[in-house]
Amino acid sequence: MRTGLILDDYQQAALALADWARLSDRVAISAISQHIPNPDDLVARIAQAEILVIMRERTPFPAALLERLPRLELLVTSGMRNLAIDLAAARARNVVVCGTDSSPTPPTELTWALILGLARHVAPESLTLRAGGPWQSTIGTDLAGATLGVLGLGKIGTRVAEIGRAFGMRVIAWSPNLDDGRAAAAGVERAASKEALLEASDVVTIHLVLGDRTRGLLGAAELRRMRRDAFLVNTSRAPIIDQAALVQALEEGWIAGAGLDVFETEPLPADSPFRRLPNVLALPHLGYVSRNNYRTFFTQAVEDIEAWLAGAPIRQLR
Question: Which of 76, 230, 261, 274 is the most buried (most CB within 10 A)?
Fold first, then answer.
């Protein structure tokens, strides 16, 4: 009987959202709901497992960790991209790494939750109402007629742009590889440059893949190009924005506010300025967290394990 562990099952939902009983004669599966940030504590808890199922980048698997897990044979991640796994180190140790499908719909919907929350001051008005404070203390920002700037016009960015048009917004887009044809097919204008998009947009939303060309894409110089009454939303990856520059921009009023679902360190440290800044609407990386997406993740994790046990792994990450 092999041992399998599901890590970072924050909502204690993994075992209920898939038919793990299909594996019960071959694998003993259990789940860990709490995050274990300390590497020594983590190794002590998972060292005996041959199979690990992980949720995106919640727990990184660098070479140094993989070297301390000699029993590990299969690592299954939600999604088909996980930059927190050292794939080369996994291959060197003969650890098979497999993934799952992931729907672009949940992060699209959450992006709009953040945009609307910022534009209509949903969080502060709700807190004031609950505390018995003033009845109405803010004035909302109209989206109809405003300009939505989409950085990255892939599966998620295209859907975000479509909803922007439904709100009556002018939608412009830019990415390093975007051409006029792709922009036109999505029904949006291609901005001449990243800088032109930042200067023209009332709302800027990021939907780029993190890589060498996009890490630190928005720094102090870029944030200063934005309008002082503009909002910045990031449901992609935190390092696309220089985090120190973003804090300064929010503290000094270079922009009106930010909606953030991703952070360089997660869970977000207790002393992070993003927890205290009044012009930040922050969420604990909920973009992909939906019932249907979780069901896909864990159902396909079961499939990945079954295929690996049969000697024919599927959905391998290279």
Answer: 76
- What local confidence, expressed as pLDDT, does residue 57 receive? 87
Residue 184 phi/psi, 5-degree rounding, is: -65, -40
* Catalytic-role residue among 266, 295, 303, 306: 266
> pLDDT tens, 99-109?
999 999 999 99
Q: pTM for this one?
A: 0.94
Catalytic annotation present for 266: yes
Q: Compute φ and ψ for 157, nearest 5 degrees.
A: -60, -40
* Active site (annotated) includes residue 56: no
Q: Residue 33: count other Cβ atoms within 10 Å of its Cβ.
A: 13
Rounded CA separation 282/118 (Å): 10
- DSSP state letters, 207-219: ----STTTTT-B-
Of the chain, the end-to-end C-alpha distance in Å amounts to 28
**Which is the catalytic residue, given 56, 121, 159, 237?**
237
Question: What does the CA dihedral 113, 117, 120, 123 come to, rounded to 10 degrees?
Answer: 140
